[in-house]
Design brief:
Blueprint: H1 2-25, H2 29-38, H3 44-67, H4 75-91, H5 95-108, H6 112-144, H7 148-152, H8 160-187, H9 190-203, H10 208-227, H11 241-255, H12 260-263, H13 266-277, H14 282-317
Helix pairs in contact: 1-13, 2-14, 3-4, 3-6, 3-10, 4-5, 4-14, 5-6, 6-9, 10-11, 11-13, 13-14
């Protein structure tokens, strides 16, 4: 099993490096220098505010989940825990979520299973929103007969038999999950039982409208973190709001891949090709992809380090 994980990690690392190399080869360095110079102007300030704002709203939403479990955690603490978790995820994908739970267990004495329940709940919520947004995009592209997703799946042919197989598999998977959920309580240990109870409380929480509003705020922030970059080049302002929406969606999907450094390579390849599809030349498209990912990567590292220093400072003054 360990050998499989090593091989899988190496596969994604090598794939990311290859995709980054392909991206760099298509960049005109005059465009790259222009983008770098823009980062020293006011143009980068709204992007920075949107990026930090997303983390703050995430922290507020997470605080709401703890509130519904009768746990009190300050907003600054959750903000810094999120930053350290993102830093861990940057190095080792998927480990950041566990590190968040461990950190709160050590610093705030919050039970590990309570944190895991809240983290799983927010991740599932984001996954549902992503699926909803993806469905809306596919429906819009079906009627408009254009778009990135329509372009990518244009060669896929679905007949009635394949659709029935897909629906049957979905029904079977849904039935299995419901059956497993109903029967796990009889077989689970105390720790798992408590985890299920905490998760059930979150499902029935009274603050659903606030949770929904905060979730919408997070996705609006994601959109701004992509859309605001089009003002880097004068000729990229021609991109429509819908084009930026689809580029954001492609970027979010790319980031779900378990590749180190924030899905490096996969993000560059997917987002740059999306920009090319909407009319940018290859050099500017690949430069934008590199700048968006690079800016977020640097911000993730800086915020993670600063948050770690904050925890050290808090511990020394305790």
């Amino acid at each position: 099993m360990n050998a499989f994980r090593v091989i899988k990690s190496l596969f994604f690392i090598v794939s990311g490096i290859i995709l980054i190399w392909i991206t760099i080869q298509k960049i005109d360095y005059s465009d790259f220098n222009q983008a770098i110079q823009a980062c020293y102007t006011w143009k980068v300030v709204p992007i920075l505010m949107a990026s930090i704002g997303v983390v703050l709203v995430r922290a507020k939403r997470w605080q709401l989940l703890y509130k519904n479990q009768d746990v009190s955690v300050s907003l600054p603490t959750l903000f810094h825990v999120l930053n350290t978790g993102y830093l861990v995820n940057f190095a080792v994908p998927r480990l950041g979520e566990l590190s968040r739970a461990f950190l709160l267990k050590n610093k705030q004495q919050i039970p590990f299973n309570r944190s895991i329940a809240s983290i799983v709940f927010e991740r599932l919520s984001d996954l549902i929103v992503l699926a909803l947004i993806l469905s809306i995009a596919i429906i819009l592209e079906y009627f408009l007969q254009f778009g990135v997703i329509n372009h990518l799946v244009s060669g896929v042919q679905l007949n009635r038999f394949k659709v029935l197989i897909l629906l049957g598999f979905t029904a079977f998977l849904s039935g299995f999950i419901i059956y497993y959920w109903r029967n796990i309580k009889d077989k689970a240990g105390i720790w798992t039982q408590e985890l299920i109870n905490y998760f059930s409380r979150l499902i029935t929480m009274k603050d659903k409208p606030i949770f929904l509003a905060l979730t919408i705020g997070i996705w609006v922030g994601f959109y701004l973190m992509t859309m605001l970059w089009i003002f880097i080049f004068p000729d990229t302002t021609q991109l429509s709001f819908y084009a930026c929406f689809e580029v954001m969606l492609v970027g979010v999907l790319a980031r779900t891949l378990p590749i180190q450094a924030g899905s490096a390579g996969a993000y560059h390849f997917a987002v740059s090709n999306a920009f090319v599809y909407f009319g940018l030349n290859q050099s500017k498209a690949f430069t934008l992809a590199l700048m968006i990912h690079g800016f977020q990567s640097i911000l993730t590292i800086l915020l993670g380090i600063l948050s770690y220093i904050w925890f050290i400072y808090q511990q020394r003054n305790a």
